[in-house]
Structures are given as C-alpha cells and as structure tokens.
Design brief:
Elements: H1 3-6, E1 8-13, E2 21-27, E3 34-41, H2 45-53, H3 61-87, E4 96-99, E5 102-108, E6 115-120, H4 123-130, E7 134-136, H5 140-144, H6 153-161, E8 168-173, E9 176-182, E10 189-195, H7 198-208, H8 217-220, H9 226-233, H10 253-259, H11 268-290, E11 296-300, H12 307-316, E12 321-324, H13 335-348, H14 356-359, E13 369-371
Parallel strand pairs: 1-4, 4-7, 8-11, 11-12
Antiparallel strand pairs: 1-2, 2-3, 5-6, 7-13, 8-9, 9-10
C-alpha cells in the first residue's frame, strides 16, 4: 500500500435519527484527523420506514432485517463511489472504511448479563461493491468485555477536541444525545444523556409530515408545558449513574404516549417546545452535575442545526460557551462519520478503540471485524 493510501480512511454513519447517510474521507498523515471530503444522502423512504419498523418486534424480522441490511450496504456503496469521484481517488487509495451500520436494537447487559447490540449491515457486500477493506461490528467486543458498547466516540473526541489545561465537554446531538467530558486532569468520561432529536423528529413527522423541525421553528412557536416536562424528566434513566447508554428501545412513541396525558390541552407546537426543552435539559443537567467547572461545550451532530435546541441549551448553561464543532475544524454533521474512520484505523493498527472508563468494559479492546477488499 502506498504511503498516502495508508493514511486515508473512510467513515460511514447512519444514525439513530434515520435522516440519512454521511460519509467522510479522513486523512491521518499528520497524526490527527483531517476531513478532506464529505458526502451525504437521505435514506430512500421505503428503506427508512423499514429500518424504523425493525426497531420494534414484528413479523418475519430475520428475513426483513437481512434485506434491509443489503439495501443499506448498496446505498452506502453508491455514496462511497460518489465520495471517491469528488476526491478524484480510487479504491486502492483508501486503507479501509469504518462502517457502523444501522442500530435497530441496543440492550447491553440485559437478559443474560451480556445483552446485545444489533447494527444492520452487510460489510462483505460493501467490500465487494467498493473494493475497499471494511471494518464493521464495532460495538460487540466491548459488550463481550462487560461494557455498554457505547458511546464509542469519546476516544475520538479526545483525539480531536481535548485542549491542554482546560476542561472541555463535547456533546453529540444525534438521535440520542451523548456527552464526553475531557478534563484538564483525570480520566475521560462519557455516556448517553437521553433523547437528542429522536422525539423531536417523531412528533414533527406525526403532526406536520416534515422529517424534522427545521431550525426549531415549530418548537420556537410553542410554550413549554410544565406538567408534561416534569413527567418526562422523571424517567429513571436520567438518574442512572454512568456508564450507561440508550436508544430507541426506550425513547420511542410508546414511551412518550402516556406522558402526554399530563398535558391534555397542549397544542402541537407546545409539545414540540417541551420535547426540545427536555433534550436541552437532560444534557445540561448532566454537564452541571458531573463537570461544573467546564466552560466550553463543543456541540456536534444534526441537532446543531436546530437553532431553538441550541438556544435552549445555552440558556440552561449561561456560564458555558456553547459552540459548534465547526469552530474547531470539523463540521457537526461530519464528526460521527469521522469517528468511525478513526475506529477503522485503530483496528487496522491493532490499537484499542474503546475507553473502559466510558463504556464500563473490563479493559481496552481492539474493536471491529475486518472484511478485506
């Protein structure tokens, strides 16, 4: 492999929000992650609907899940080809790609003490279609070692956003929200705070037909319903100690429905405002409780584009500078995909990808299974 190719990795991500696929080209030749290309595409409506349906039990799941995994792999391969054309590169110019797949179940520690996490993916098909080595199945080794298998991005956040002598926090506002604490001294910590965009998108789609609350306009036009908010924040997950992780297994339509009874006269925009406040509040509360001296919060993920969510987050943290990751060199929608490029590199280099203090695993582990080109 040529030296230049050895430093180039691709990261693929389709998140819990199911809003689309992001792919980045990352260059590690200088020792840090430099994103040089980015491409994205929405999921086909029928694939998105099927992936969403597979988050809950249903008929003929195994068959449907495998077909959905094949369709996702083909969509990812097409986007990777687009990225290579943009960069004027060939498959041989890439060391490997990290392909996370689509999480449809996440139950660490449940049932038998180990639990499971399921990311629909067909890395073998992806390797065949692209001619690029694929690193996939990035969570299960951490679970096998007693961890949560999530969040995995704090190790990458540390490599990109840590600042000597400063306490910095990084918040990913994806479908779920996860927080990373990068202290000036001491151990990196991180966990899932709770819902990020998942409930906001759910409510907006149900009542407006739009995929998301663009710029937070719907929420901004409503009023927070105090009784509803208090019912929502009483969810036991919010008080659980880290390490912890969550997903649509908990925060979904069935979870939300009984809480709505506390606000019988609420308008659509009032519920949207309350759900937006919930997302902001659970993140801000975790930061205040666990790192009260932090004065810089770097925010990434699709939620950065929701101005009302960012406004409410800043209002909850008046003494903290809330800033987009864009200011530190990586666009917010690129950070998670870049993290999976970094994890692919860690795997190929035989280096650990998890942080045991974050996931709760018994030790550092090399993450991922390799599917050669």
């Amino acid at each position: 492999m040529r030296a230049a190719a050895a430093s180039r990795y691709i990261g693929l991500m389709s998140g819990t929000s199911l809003d689309g696929i992001d792919v980045v080209l990352a260059d590690f030749s200088q020792g840090k992650c430099l994103v040089t290309q980015h491409a994205s595409a929405p999921l086909a409506p029928e694939l998105r609907a099927e992936l969403l349906a597979l988050n809950t039990p249903g008929d003929n799941e195994l068959h449907r899940a495998q077909l959905a995994a094949n369709a996702l792999a083909r969509a990812c391969a097409a986007l990777v080809q687009q990225l290579l054309r943009q960069a004027a590169l060939n498959a041989a110019d890439i060391a490997a790609m990290g392909a996370h797949g689509q999480t449809v179940r996440h139950r660490p520690g449940a049932f038998d003490g180990t639990g499971y996490t399921v990311q629909l993916n067909n890395p073998a098909l992806l390797a065949e279609l692209t001619g690029i080595t694929v690193v996939a199945d990035l969570r299960s080794r951490d679970l096998a070692a007693g961890g949560q298998g999530a969040p995995l991005v704090p190790a990458f956040h540390q490599s990109c956003f840590a600042q000597p002598g400063q306490d910095v926090a990084v918040l990913n506002l994806g479908g779920m929200s996860n927080l990373t604490l990068l202290p000036a001294q001491g151990q990196v910590r991180g966990w899932d705070c709770g819902p990020g965009n998942v409930l906001l998108d759910l409510w907006c789609q149900r009542h407006t037909g739009q995929a998301c609350d663009r710029d937070g306009a719907l929420a901004a036009s409503g009023r927070v319903q105090d009784a509803l908010l208090q019912s929502l924040v009483a969810e036991p997950y919010f008080s659980q100690p880290a390490p912890k992780s969550t997903g649509r297994d908990l925060f979904n339509a069935n979870w939300l429905q009984p809480h709505l009874a506390t606000a019988p006269g609420a308008r659509v925009q009032d519920v949207q405002a309350t759900l937006t406040e919930l997302s902001a509040r659970c993140c801000a509360r975790d930061l205040r409780r666990n790192a009260p001296a932090t004065r810089q919060l770097v925010v990434c993920g699709g939620g950065v584009r929701n101005r009302e969510l960012m406004r409410r987050l800043q209002a909850q943290l008046p003494d903290v500078r809330v800033m987009s990751s864009q200011a530190l060199g990586i666009a917010p929608e690129q950070v998670e995909a870049a993290a999976f490029a970094w994890l692919a590199r860690q795997c190929l280099h035989g280096e650990a990808g998890n942080l045991p203090g974050v996931t709760g695993a018994r030790g550092a582990r090399i993450l991922g299974a390799i599917y050669p080109a």
